[in-house]
């Protein structure tokens, strides 16, 4: 007969608060550990966002002091401005170019790096380097490459006979916007490639073998086996690319200043000019909150479209 009085207590020990000797319930300990992170988030993000929203509903003087409640007047002024719709359309085009370029290039690189070959580990390490480049260094690098006087791109084109003279790449609005979108996508592709590489490694090989047995070619296997398996990663990359596109600032400031004319004036740059050049801080806050609403809408629509399961689409 077992003596239960001397048997060891195998019950799960109750957690303790790190600063107290008394025992505490697990849920209280969990909240206590999460409290510093929650507090830091509130101080660094929630309060500035709430304050900026409140500012967008007021008239603000040059010192940033609220002068009077104006409601949605700042939003009405911004939407009625002649620069709003062109800047919005330009931002959407810019974002689409970055999304398409990032998704296509990163999936291509990820599929190339998914199969083992000599030097694959070294190539993966090298590919991550562009992601570590800051936005300022990114702008300076591309400004040097496309410089109309001493840029290496013009030199190579002349040497190879592909151009008759040096070209001023930043004189045409469409060209410079394409350069900016390529620069942002180039900076984002390495991180997206890592995400897709991890997603591809989770796809069972048996599915590909079964598809080959059924006679499916490479394109059919990608569309019906690989793509459904990495759809969630595609969703994440699209959202990240959209955020990067809408929040692009340093390359515009360093390379174009919104020019030529207003051809590279995106919403982010326009908000900066309204706030820090014209000192219309209430309207600048309204511009950035309109950007926030647009980004939230794009994220929700993307999640709804790409997040639907096959059985949902059939119903």
Structure description:
- There is one protein chain.
- By secondary structure, the protein is mainly alpha-helical.
- Among the domains are: 27-69, no CATH class; 84-135 and 169-264, MetI-like (MetI-like fold, Orthogonal Bundle).
- Helices cover 67% and strands 2% of the residues.
- It is built from 14 helices and two strands, in the order H-E-E-H-H-H-H-H-H-H-H-H-H-H-H-H.
- The chain has helices at 26-56, 73-80, 84-114, 120-127, 135-145, 152-159, 173-201, 205-213, 218-229, 231-246, 250-255, 267-276, 281-306, 310-314, and strands at residues 58-60, 66-69.
- A two-stranded antiparallel sheet has the order 1-2.
- Helix 3 packs parallel to helix 7.
- The protein is globular and about 70 Å long.
- Residues 310-315 have low confidence and may be disordered.
Write the layout of secondary structure elements.
Elements: H1 26-56, E1 58-60, E2 66-69, H2 73-80, H3 84-114, H4 120-127, H5 135-145, H6 152-159, H7 173-201, H8 205-213, H9 218-229, H10 231-246, H11 250-255, H12 267-276, H13 281-306, H14 310-314
Antiparallel strand pairs: 1-2
Helix pairs in contact: 1-13, 2-13, 3-7, 3-10, 5-7, 7-10, 10-13, 12-13
Brief overview:
The protein is mainly α and 315 residues long. Helix content is 67%, strand content 2%. Among the domains are: 27-69, no CATH class; 84-135 and 169-264, Orthogonal Bundle (MetI-like fold).
